[in-house]
């Protein structure tokens, strides 16, 4: 018998059972564990205790002071597993409040700011403990360290402080974790949202991004409608889009138009290769197979059920996405978004769009204006920005989101006053935040956009990342970049770049947000007394234990 329980809830005593505790090394959690196992009547026979990260000597001494508990401890170990794996190349530290704690209106005076950085650093460090990798720690340097005329702000120092905290944890691992590397094996690059305010907002046109942006999915969970067994009404079935699905693996990073074409080819090829499917298809006078036709095929051809199930799932998803694109006019909106980012469009184009496209959804107008605010923050310091907001007819809540983009803007160096330049460049684009990447051939429309981190990763791997702008806690020797390391770097765009650069790339983030979630968090940056269901940083993994059969032997974990 196995039971999973929360140590902060009242539990039934099971003195004949052994318990496995997996807890964060906090005083509260250790106190609860001691309460469970001390005295004449402990809750369990023996306790095998595994901490999610490094435990302090103070907490070890606290455990040692209770003489009744020590004989009942079967194992006491640091697991260093304080993160959530998203897939084979991504993880989060599960900090849903990071944006507020680090960039919010009250960040300068809030104690949560430093506590958040410390916890994020601890959890990032446990990733390297798991991988048995010791990185060079690179980070975006504060603007004030590059230019004395730039005012130092708390937000500007976030990557510097986080890098120092991560380095402190890693240095301790060198002496406390067996077989932990003593010399650098990989590179870690720490950046914050200020380097790219546009990526979380703009419409990205890959299949994966469109699924999460347009279909209101909960994580990777999609609700599919399938025919009922009785053949009357349809039933709802929850499916996960994950690595076990070969079609998802193949299409997730493809442009939505490319993904739709490939699905059509797969469907056509399946019908052409299977006589039974041809018979079923011919009964429809050779017309296009719909999702419902495919689902009915599953019942008619049970030997192909798994194959058709996956195909019908993705045909349905792609169909829904393309319907939203058509009905929302997303192609024209996407062209303007990318035009603004790449400097092909400007303020006049935005004004014309807002005046002529009155039926555009409020959330899409909001995202458009947030992109504009990231490109032209100075416009919103005058009445020009306010006039645009009035033209867009945004709600006060949405206006707040646009104004809050300022919290993610880095301080600018003071520009020298006086004088003017007579140099003109007639070919220069408007205010461009991206340059077209000539090294990649883009077949599909609206596939120009790329996150800034992609560029940073490539420069890092080539040894071209400016050392003054992206400094190193453990400064590498000049010969280090001569032969690019094969170890992992913690960055974004992981899957595509791993293939291109022939190097393992791992993306880490405080949280994984779709555009709607990011915008919600941004709106809250200037709101006081925010109520969250989980407000303590020590609620990450914490208070769970497994009860196992009597006589459990200590388990060896490799990580």
UniProtKB/TrEMBL annotation:
Signal peptide positions (record): none
SUPFAM superfamilies reported in the protein's UniProt record: Sec1/munc18-like (SM) proteins
Gene3D superfamilies: 1.25.40.60, 3.40.50.1910, 3.40.50.2060, Syntaxin Binding Protein 1, Chain A, domain 2
Gene Ontology terms: biological process: vesicle-mediated transport
Similarity-based family: Belongs to the STXBP/unc-18/SEC1 family.
PANTHER family per record: VESICLE PROTEIN SORTING-ASSOCIATED (PTHR11679)
Protein name: SNARE-interacting protein KEULE
Species per Swiss-Prot/TrEMBL record: Vanilla planifolia
């Amino acid at each position: 018998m196995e039971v999973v329980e929360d140590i902060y809830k009242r539990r039934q005593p099971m003195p004949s059972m052994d318990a496995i505790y997996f807890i964060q090394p906090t005083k509260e959690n250790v106190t609860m564990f001691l309460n469970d196992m001390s005295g004449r009547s402990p809750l369990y026979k023996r306790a095998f205790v595994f901490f999610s990260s490094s435990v302090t000597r103070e907490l070890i001494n606290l455990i040692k002071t209770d003489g009744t508990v020590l004989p009942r401890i079967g194992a006491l170990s640091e697991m260093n597993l304080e993160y959530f794996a998203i897939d084979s190349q991504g993880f989060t530290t599960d900090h849903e409040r990071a944006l507020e704690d680090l960039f919010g209106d009250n960040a300068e005076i809030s104690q949560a700011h430093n506590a958040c950085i410390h916890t994020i650093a601890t959890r990032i460090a446990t990733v390297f403990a798991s991988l048995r990798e010791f990185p060079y720690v690179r980070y975006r340097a504060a603007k004030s360290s590059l230019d004395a005329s730039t005012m130092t702000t708390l937000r500007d120092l976030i990557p510097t402080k986080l890098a120092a905290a991560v380095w402190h944890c890693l240095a301790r691992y060198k002496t406390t974790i067996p077989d932990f590397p003593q010399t650098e094996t990989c590179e870690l690059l720490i950046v914050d949202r200020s380097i790219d305010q546009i990526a979380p907002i703009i419409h990205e046109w890959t299949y994966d991004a469109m699924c999460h942006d347009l279909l209101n999915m909960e994580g990777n969970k999609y609700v599919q409608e399938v025919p009922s067994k009785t053949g009357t009404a349809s039933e709802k079935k929850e499916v996960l889009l994950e690595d076990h699905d070969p079609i998802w693996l193949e299409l997730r990073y493809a442009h939505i138009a490319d993904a739709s074409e490939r699905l059509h080819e797969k469907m056509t090829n399946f019908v052409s290769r299977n006589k039974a499917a041809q018979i079923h298809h011919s009964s429809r006078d050779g017309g296009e197979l719909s999702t419902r036709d495919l689902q009915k095929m599953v019942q008619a051809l049970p030997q192909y059920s798994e194959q058709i199930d996956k195909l019908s799932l993705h045909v349905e998803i792609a169909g829904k996405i393309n319907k939203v694109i058509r009905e929302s006019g997303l192609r024209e909106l996407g062209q303007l978004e990318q035009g603004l980012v790449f400097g092909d469009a400007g303020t006049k184009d935005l004004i014309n769009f807002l005046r002529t496209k009155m039926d555009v959804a409020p959330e899409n107008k909001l995202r458009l204006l947030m992109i504009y605010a990231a490109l032209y923050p100075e416009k919103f310091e005058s009445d020009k920005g306010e006039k645009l907001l009035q033209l867009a007819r945004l709600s006060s809540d949405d206006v707040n989101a646009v104004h809050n983009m300022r919290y993610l803007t880095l301080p600018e160096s003071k520009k020298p006053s006086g004088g003017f330049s007579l140099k003109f460049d007639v070919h220069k684009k408007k205010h461009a935040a991206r340059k077209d990447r000539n090294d990649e051939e883009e077949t599909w429309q609206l596939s120009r956009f790329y996150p800034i981190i992609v560029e940073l990763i490539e420069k890092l791997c080539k040894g071209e990342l400016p050392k003054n702008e992206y400094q190193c806690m453990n400064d590498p020797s000049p010969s280090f970049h001569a032969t690019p390391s094969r170890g992992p770097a913690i960055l974004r765009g992981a899957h595509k770049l791993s293939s291109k650069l022939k190097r393992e790339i791992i993306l880490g983030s405080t949280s994984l947000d779709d555009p709607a979630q990011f915008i919600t968090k941004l709106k809250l940056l200037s709101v006081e007394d925010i109520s969250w269901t989980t407000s303590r940083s020590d609620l990450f993994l914490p208070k769970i234990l497994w009860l196992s059969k009597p006589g459990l032997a200590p388990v060896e974990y490799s990580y």
